[in-house]
Fold:
Amino acid sequence: MRQNNNHLGAWQQPTGSGFGARSTAQDVIKGIDLSGKIAIVTGGNTGIGLETVKTLATAGATVIVPVRDTDKAKQNLEHITNVEIEVMDLMDPASVDAFADRFLSSGRPLHLLIHNAGIMWVPLRRDSRGIESQLATNYLAQFQLTARLWLPLKNASGARVIHVSSAGHHFSPFHFEDPNFLNRTYETLLAYGQSKTACNLFALELDNRGRGFDVRAYAVHPGSVGGTELAREAPRELFQQMGFWDEDGNVLPEVAASLKTVQQGAATTVWCATSPALNDIGGVYCEDADIAVVASDASSHSGVQPYSLEEADAKRLWELSEKLTGVTFRTVGNEQTEDVGIQEKPASVLLSEYLASVSAGKPALTASFFAEDGYIDAPYVESLGMPSRISGRSAIEATMKGLLQNAPGFHFTHIRPVLETHNEVVAEYESEAVLANGRTYRQLYMGHLTAENGKITCHREFLNTLVFAEAFLPNGLKDLTTDK
Structure:
C-alpha cells in the first residue's frame, strides 16, 4: 500500500526523467506549451531566477517578477516578452501584503508560484519583527506570500508551488527552540541551513493540504551554480579559506569546472514547474531535474535529509509560521474564509509593522496610528520648555514630521511586548537617531495599543529618557542643574 505523503522521504525515488546535472532549462521544457498560464517568480531579475523567467515566458506564460530594484529588473528583463515587473521586498511583510493585494485585485488565477529569491552568507540581521534575516527572506516570506495567494492558486485548477531550497539544508535541521538566534551564537551557515530545511518542510505540508485542490508543492536544489549573486556579501577570505578562490580572489579552475551554468541551475526549477511526470506526485525534494534520493546518513551532502521531510515537524512549523507572521493560513473551510490570506495579525505584529513604516520615513501614518483621544505624555520635557502632553492626531503628526526632518536617520531599534493578548498589547519600544549636532538621540516608549480589522491604534504613549535631553542640551544635564 502506497503511503499517502512523502513523510521521511517515502516518495523520494527518481522518476528516470532522462535529464541530469548538465541538462538546461531549455532542455526540460521542450514540447511544453504554457500559453494562458500565469506565473510569479520572485528574484526573477538575476541568476537562475532570470533564466527561469526567460524559459517560462518563451514557452508562452505570462510571468510576473516582484523585485526590490525595479530599475535593475527593467534593464535585465527588457528584451523578454510577457513579463510584468512589480515591487516587493521580502524582508518587509507590508510589502509582501501589498504585492499580494495587487495581484488579487487583478482577479487572475495563478498557475505557478516560484519562490526563487533568497540570501546567503549574510551577517546577523533582523527584520522589523526581530526575525533573523535568512529565516525571514528564505522561508517566512514564502509562507506569507503563498497564504495570501492561496485563492488564485486554487482557482487555477492545477497549480504548482516551487520552493528553491538547497543542499545547504544539510547544514542544520530547523531549530524550533531558538529559530532567531536569541540564545545561541549566530553562524550564518546554520541560519541558512535551517531556512532551507524550513522550505522542505513547508513543501511537504503544503502538498499534504493542497493536493485536494490540485495544488502541488516541490522543493528544489538547483546545484552549485556560477554567475549568481548569492555570495555577494561573503568576504573574499571566507572562500579562500574554503579552498574555492585563489589569493587574487579568482575561482580556482577545478572549482569552476564543477559549477553548473545558470541555464543548468534553472533546469530543476523548470522541470518541477512543468513536467508531466509530476502530475500525480508532490511534496518531494528534487535535484538535477529529477526526484532526489534520501541521504544515506547524517554526514552525506547529497540527496535530502529525512529530518527535512518529517511530517510532525512540518505541521509544527506551519503553526509556528502562522504565529511569527501573524497570517492564518487555512487551506480548507467555507467559501467566505477559505481565501487563507485573511490577516488575523496580533497587535504586537501590527505594532512592529507600523514602527517599521515610520522608520522608513512615512510620518503621515502617525496620525492614523493614534486614537481620536490618544496622546503622547512626556513629563520630562517640561524642563526644556516643551509641553509635556501632545494630544490630537494633527498635532502628533506635525510633531513627527518635525522630528524626522531634524533627525533623518530616526528609526526604531526594538519592540518588547510587556502584556499581550491577540488584540491588545502594552509594549516597550525604543528609537534612535543622530541629530545635526552629532549627538545621539534615543527614546524609550511605553504604549498601550489595540488591534481591530488589521489596524493598530495607540491610545496612550509615555516617553521616558535622559538621552533625549542630553542630545538637545549643549552641555548635557549641566544646563538643567547649574544655577543661573
